[in-house]
Amino acid sequence: MTTSPRVTIKDVAARAGVSKGAVSLAFNHKPGLSEVTRDRIFEAARQLGWAPNLAARSLAGRRVDVVGLAICRPARLLGLEPFYMEFISGVESVLTEHSCSLLLRLLRTVEEEVGLQDSWWRGKHVSGSILVDFRADDPRVAAVERLGMPVVAVGHPSLTGGLTSVWTDDASAVTEAVRYLAALGHRRVARVGGAAGLGHTAIRTAAFDAAARGLELSGAWQVATDFSGEAGARATRSLLTASASDRPTAIVYDNDIMAVAGLSVASEMGLSVPGDVSLLAWDDSQLCRLTHPTLSAMSHDVHGFGAEVARTLFGVITGGGGGSHPVPTPVLTPRGSTAPPR
Amino acid sequence: MTTSPRVTIKDVAARAGVSKGAVSLAFNHKPGLSEVTRDRIFEAARQLGWAPNLAARSLAGRRVDVVGLAICRPARLLGLEPFYMEFISGVESVLTEHSCSLLLRLLRTVEEEVGLQDSWWRGKHVSGSILVDFRADDPRVAAVERLGMPVVAVGHPSLTGGLTSVWTDDASAVTEAVRYLAALGHRRVARVGGAAGLGHTAIRTAAFDAAARGLELSGAWQVATDFSGEAGARATRSLLTASASDRPTAIVYDNDIMAVAGLSVASEMGLSVPGDVSLLAWDDSQLCRLTHPTLSAMSHDVHGFGAEVARTLFGVITGGGGGSHPVPTPVLTPRGSTAPPR
DNA sequence: GCGCACTCCTAAACCGGTATAGGCCAATGC
DNA sequence: GCATTGGCCTATACCGGTTTAGGAGTGCGC
Prior knowledge:
The structure is a homodimer.
Chain A: H1 9-16, H2 20-27, H3 35-48, H4 54-59, E1 66-71, H5 75-78, H6 82-97, E2 101-106, H7 110-122, E3 128-131, H8 139-147, E4 151-154, H9 157-160, E5 165-167, H10 170-184, E6 188-193, H11 199-214, E7 219-224, H12 229-240, E8 250-253, H13 256-268, E9 278-283, E10 296-299, H14 302-317, E11 324-326, E12 331-333
Parallel strand pairs in A: 1-2, 1-3, 3-4, 4-5, 5-11, 6-7, 6-8, 8-9, 9-10
Antiparallel strand pairs in A: 10-12
Helix pairs in contact in A: 1-2, 1-3, 6-14, 7-8, 10-11, 12-13
Chain A binds a DNA duplex through residues 6, 8-10, 18-25, 28, 32-34, 37, 52-62, 124.
């Protein structure tokens, strides 16, 4: 098979009987060309099936239509986490409107990510990036500020330094969750949290402690996990093995897959939900409506969150933006898995 | 804040006291440089924090370390589908080893995708692509052949023409699933299938029909959905509303989220699983082990599947490869949701 | 002393666009 | 009639790499 010889701007120019400059002008909708010439150029390009070479275009200084997203989690775990795919699909829904693509990369450490963002930016491979999974004293803050790279940080301003950030108020949401359970009459409450190193996990942990103290609960447990269903199941099992008078009567989970796992552990242990133990999920993908009983959750429009992040990034790239953009706090959505304790 | 002036190959060359050509030679590990010069160049680059500009590099003819993946499904639906994220994470696990990134784009139609792949390739933005979700007479086959673009097609060879393909034997798997249910004693079996336009759905549909006929089942229903939990729930509800003597006693689902939904519908209708109806899921993410009862499934290493696709693509890009690469057929994994009918 | 091969390196062309200074020509002002 | 203006377009210098032809220096055989 003969690979079609690549058609360049020069071919189009020749065919239309103009210079390359004219073709460039036409394709970037800049003034300085007559209507007829413009049409002739487009017609020639159409006939030859020409599309501008993005590498050349970005080399010559124009913005490139790609934004970066690097995620530091083991690839295996990521596939199981409903949050990210939904987040990405939200990001994509906005990028698509701007004919923009997402450059995705999974790595192991933040240090690797610093290097990657660096070469993405220096190499003009992206016009900006989305940064996620902030931890305390995150090295990316200083790195991208030094580069002058347009980014949006997904995380609480206390973690993201001076970067433009989009965030949900995790502390308030945790507080609301605990208050709700306390209002139902629960006095012994546990939380199955996410990965310990993550900034938002720390925020939630602190908020949970504060809320438990403020409400003078008689028992408050917290366990860290890796967000996987297996870890959620393990955590639940160990929380529920204590005697009925000592174990928690309500458990809050940091995502929904762990809550589903918890539900299954409860039934495996012969405990009824919400009779013996109430469960409260987080993020609320459609999974929560597919279990039996359905899962109460701190509900959160993850898709919309991703979309907002993308919109904010476009703002930063075009030189505007900056500042801190809170998105709506997750709202409590009671369903079948929470009730007063027996 | 002052954006750091970009450092280019020229700066590195000046600092190391050599020409730009020498720097290029060093960084591409080509022969023709003495050990000392090479070291001096690397040291200079390190001090200046230089990374080669990928746009310039790809413009000048070298392969670029990016592969493309375009998915034609509504962004909203995609977030809910565990398959894709797991697939992508498998792809990434191999790409990462090669310091390669994934360019991801969601679109609405295959026609759009043809245009996108075209400009990705012509624009040298990717060195190859992964094509998914084939349908009958897929226009992408001819398009990428015309371009001479390296791609791997995820789909049965009957759908992917002469393209290098990686595929699972859906027909055998469906047949095995139906045989298994029949062997348990089921005579009325249904299948809740995926999106009607998709090639692999058509293959499964035909295989299901053939198997049902071959085994002389007394009832065989098939319903098409959009893969969402809601659609799975709806389909299950309508299948199970018939009287006990008319409705199916076993249902096969095309993914696992629909099976979870089906499980919940059964219990909402007061039917016991597997007593009144057996359920068999597909793809088998960890979800299937988290329900109660656990879901029997046609189990499939989606992560490994993605990894194999990526490996194959590298083969094609480096000029080798071609042909058809079957990956292991999904294997039946009986769990708690299947049993002989009452 | 000369030719020859070999190693190490440089200069310059090239990739395919964008940006810009300036050329050409008709219309306008005085 | 001649300078000025303005619209339309071309020529050319970039962007930051890769690639190649070839030059400078060294060692060696005869």
